[in-house]
Structure formats: structure tokens, C-alpha cells
Write a structure and sequence with these properties.
114 residues; flat; 6 helices; mainly alpha
Length: 114
């Protein structure tokens, strides 16, 4: 990532095809020792490509990646209607019961730091 970030910084600075010398200068300015093989790989992969187009293609690829549980919850609630709200209410009640049982441990007369 550091080599890609240095490449992007050089490209944003106005250099259309940054060289390894320019990337080393950027990395050295923040105290990072450059690995020539990794840096050359980044330069070879991005040479001749417009950075804006590469970023736009990356956004398109990220859109197809699943976003985790929050998407599944919102889609099931939207499609399930009232039926989807009942399991959510049941989960909240279970969480409340768990919290109460944890609180009751405090009343045993001793604590962790006694």
C-alpha cells in the first residue's frame, strides 16, 4: 500500500508516470525504506494508465463486494415487513436478560479488585 500511496501522491503532484526515483524520494521523506522489487511491480502495473480511471475501476469492483451483516439485516427487514420486526424484538429481550444476569453477579459480595 505504501508504494501505491507514493505513486498516487506523485501522480497528484503532476507527474503522469512517476519513476522509482520519485517514489523513493516520497517514501524517504516519511522514513520508509523502499523495496525495489515491490516498487517496480507497482510502477509496471500502473505505467501508461490514467490514475483516475484506475480508481474508478476500483470503485466498481468494491461495489460488488458484500458489505457484511448490516446489509443482510436491512434487506431482510425491508422484505419481511412486520414479520421481520418480531425476531428483532426477541433478540432485544434476550440481550436485556443477559445484561440483568451480569448485573446480578455484582451482588455476590465480592468483586474482581477486592
Amino acid at each position: 500500500m505504501r508504494y501505491i500511496a507514493a505513486y498516487l501522491l506523485a501522480a497528484l503532484g503532476g507527474t503522469e508516470n512517476p519513476s522509482s526515483k520519485e517514489l523513493k524520494k516520497i517514501l524517504d521523506s516519511v522514513g520508509i525504506e523502499a523495496d525495489d522489487t515491490r516498487m517496480d511491480k507497482v510502477i509496471n502495473e500502473l505505467s501508461g494508465k490514467n490514475v483516475q480511471d484506475v480508481i474508478a475501476q476500483g470503485y466498481g469492483k468494491l461495489a460488488s463486494v458484500p458489505a457484511g451483516g448490516s446489509v443482510a439485516v436491512s434487506s431482510s427487514a425491508a422484505s419481511g415487513g412486520p414479520a421481520a420486526a418480531a425476531p428483532a424484538a426477541a433478540e432485544e429481550k434476550k440481550e436485556e436478560k443477559k445484561e440483568e444476569s451480569e448485573e446480578s453477579d455484582d451482588d455476590m459480595g465480592f468483586g474482581l479488585f477486592d
